[in-house]
Structure formats: C-alpha cells, structure tokens
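Review box. Two proteins, two foldings.
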Amino acid sequence: MTGSPQAPFADRGYLIIPGALSVDEVSGLNKAINRDREISKLWQNRGNGRHQNPNLLITTDAFDKTITHRSVLPVITELIGPDVCFEEFSVMIREPVVVPAPDPNWHRDTKHRSDHSLALRNLSVIYYLTDVDETTHCFSVVPESVDEKRSEPDGRDGTNAIDLHAAAGTAILFNAGSIHDARQRITSNERRTIHIYYGHRDQTALSNHTIFPKRLQKGRHASLFDRPNEVSERVHTVYE
C-alpha cells in the first residue's frame, strides 16, 4: 500500500490491503486446509456452520508466512509499534446456508489502549481465502475513530457496520476493540478466512487458544514470538 496507514486507521479503525496474498499463495493455503481437515482432530464445530482450528501451526508450517508476510507485517509494525508481538492464530470456515441466516452477534474482542497513539491494544488481521461479495458471508465492522475509542466505549450496536467485500487474497487489519462480526447470508458458497492477532510485548497474553510451535522462536522474525502465552510455555517446558 502507498502512504502511511496511520491516518486512515485513526479515522475508522481498519485498513484493507487488496492482493496481500498472491493467487498461488491462496491456492496453496486452501490446499493445506484441505489436507489438515483430513487428518487433524483439532477442528472445532462452533455452531451455525462455523468450523475453526486455532492450532494448525502445530500440524503444518504452511501458514507461518501469513503471520510475517511482507505485504502486511510492516504495516502491522507501524500501527502497533516496535514492541509488536504475535498473540493468536486460527483458520475459520463458514459453511453455505440454505435457510435464513442468524443475525450477527456484534461484539468487541478486546478493550482499547488509551496510552497508544491509535488506542490500539490488539490488532486483528483477517485474510480472505475465498472471494467475498454481497452473495456470500462476509466480515462486517463498525468504523470508529481514535477519539471515539479513547472514550472507552462498550457499546455493541452494529447499526452502522460496513460489510467488507473483497477478492481472495485480501487482508483486513482492524482494531480488535472495534464492534464487528460475520454477516451471514443465504448462500451456496463456503467462506474461508485466516484470523491472526497481534499485541504489545509489555501486556499479558491475549489468550491461550494458540500453541506457539518452537520453530517460530527462531529465524528472522524470532522477536515476534518471544512472549508466548502460558500454554505454549508449558508445552515448551515439557517437550524441550
């Protein structure tokens, strides 16, 4: 993307990066999902046709590159700051719906951080792995400026939510403290997404949903993974 991401993110709390993943990368990731679904017992049925796996990183390294992708990581670092760290990873599949879809469950994943220039405690990145338009399920978010976030809002009204339609390979970066959810529709199309969370190294871990494989703490981006969550530390202690 051209220009600084700070201003548009400050105005609305999210950014869209078209073509963050190439066609070949999207194809390879979808194939990796297909393989994992055949062998892994870690997929969770979350209801309403939603299937999610927060631990694909354990069974394959095919998704490592999405966490540190060259098209997205520099933007993430500029938005959060140099103390950025990895928090959580999952892949989600929403099945086709043939009956009236449930209304969105508007929610905020985290609180805001008042001492941050963008009031940003946690940043969420969503990669679309399938094309998303008005005929499919889509991600929907309520725009919210930094000034609004500094007022520590706790509302969960999705009236002003914007549906984000985009091609496979698009990355959406948004403040995890923003009101959002999936907008489900009657559709014959499956929607696939990757969900990654980042935070600040000086705060407690966002969750224990994702076990960090030890391999991530090596190499060029090792510092991104040097504040693992509690469950990862326990696993590393047992199997080190």
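Next protein.
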Amino acid sequence: MTNEKEIILAVTRFNPESDLKPHILEYSFPFEKVTSLLHLLKKINEKDGLVFRYSCDDFSGFCGLCKVMVNGKPALACKTLIDKPGRLEIEPLRNCKVLRDLAVEIPNQG
C-alpha cells in the first residue's frame, strides 16, 4: 500500500552474473516536490548500484539514452516528471537485450 506522501518506484533489477531472471525491487521516496524520474534513478544508483544509461545532466532529452519503460510505456527518464505521490513500474526497454538492470544494448545506428 502506498503512503499518500511517498513515491514508490518498482524497478526491474537484473545482473546476468548472479541472477537467473529479472526481479522487482521497490524503492520509496518522500514526495516533497516535483522531480524527474532520472533524479530518483540517480538516488537509487547511489544507494543500491542501479545500472542505467543517461548522458545529460541538464535534462534536455537530447541524447535519448535514459529511455526506459514507465508503467508499460517508453519514456525518457530525464523528461518524466513525477508531480504526485504514487507507484511507478520502471523496466528496461522491451525488445532490447538487457545488459544489467535498466541498461540495454543499443543497436548500431551506423
């Protein structure tokens, strides 16, 4: 059950070196103000070593590296604003090889 004043991220975790299959871990944050999903993923990385891709720190959305699935839909983590408490399901992009956690193999565009 979600507290009225918290954000829950249900994040798919997978380490091919130690996990047989992906699993979900939940992370909770107090809802204080509007924040980006990228900001919260960085906090999980600092605390729990979450692996994901991103390039910009200015939240421009230009590179597209931070794309993940949010509640079943593709979204840029830097542009996904969390403006209310609740629960979000965060998964790696579908139809891509998962390298670890939310990081997927990027197809060669050359």
